Amino acid sequence: MTARAPRIRVQRRPVHGVLLLDKPLGLSSNDALQKAKWLLRAEKAGHTGTLDPLASGVLPLCFGAATKFSQLQLDAPKTYEAVARLGVTTTTGDAEGDVVARCDVDPARLAPERLAEVQRQFTGPIRQVPPMHSALKKDGKALYEYARAGIAVEREARDVVIHALELSLVAGNIEEFAIKMIVTCSKGTYIRTLGEDIGAALGCGAHLTFLRRIDTGGLGVERCVTLAALEAMDEAARLACVQPVETLLARHVPVTLDRDNAARFLSGVRRRGSWPDAPQVAVFGEAPRALLGVAHTAGGELVPGRLLSPLEIDQILEINTPPAERGTLEAL
């Protein structure tokens, strides 16, 4: 019997920032996170909401201090590119499920004016019934667990918002009609369900054959790196792919504090100033410039929200600042 080689223990280290990953098909969000975490040897990591294994595309991964702000991306609008095959419905709403029904597709119902009408119908606030094959829980059990056991449970319709929708006919086999969808939507939107509902509105049913997330909260797929590319890099190149924590705060109003006010802010003390009211503020310290946390301003007061610790700030400065310019927050 051949003895197994000893398992190599990875030496973890502090990593702070955001890795914009182009998740591949067939991999769960958590598996992708664990792979990236291992490649970066990071101590702490989390993702910003799951992306279906059958979908590819933008999955922001948060490391270290960035995990404190992951909820911002979870709540952010998402943009997807999808293809729905018309005339065939399945148990799962995608190509993985068993065929439930087939229906002839009338090309006359796919005229540009009809697609434009359906596009308007599904733009704006809509209600969706969550699919049985989803991770949504009922009585402490995921819906997909009921579905695998052949049990259908009642689900309440949920309010979601389709901010923008583009529908177009996909050129291809004349016997197989499909539509391309580009959807910008609120959190909680099921694109498979949207595809099924649009198919029903066209009178023929549909299921998804392709799904890719191309943007989340302004973070586009063109800025992403794949796991394969990350794996082929050396360690320095991998770390260079990790973007600053403030990447998650692009829509926050920036405020910079001097050393004395920064120290008090980091202690959770409100600061007074001439700032206009703003619900989302990213607060930085100067000399050296460093992200301190988030806040909101009201009535001339800067009210602390989620804050970085002095240790996290020092670690970020040590990693990102050349030795000659490096400062310290020991005085804070």
Commentary on this structure:
- The protein is α+β, with helices and mostly antiparallel strands and 332 residues long.
- Helices cover 23% and strands 32% of the residues.
- It has nine helices and 18 strands.
- The strands form four sheets. Strands 1, 2, 3, 4, 7, 10, 11, 12 and 13 form a nine-stranded mixed β-sheet that branches. A five-stranded mixed β-sheet has the order 14-16-17-18-15. A two-stranded antiparallel ribbon has the order 5-6.
- The radius of gyration is 24 Å and the shape is globular.
Structural class category: alpha+beta
Kindly state the percentage of residues in helix: 10-25%
Main β-sheet: number of strands, strand sense, barrel status?
Answer: 9 strands, mixed
Low-confidence stretches: none
| Total of helices | 9
Using only C-alpha atoms, the radius of gyration works out to 24 Å
β-strand number: 18
Q: N- to C-terminal separation?
A: 60 Å
* Order of SSEs: EHEEHEEEHEEEHEEHEEHHEHEEEEH
Shape: globular
Q: Strand portion, in percent?
A: 25-35%
Average of per-residue pLDDT values: 90
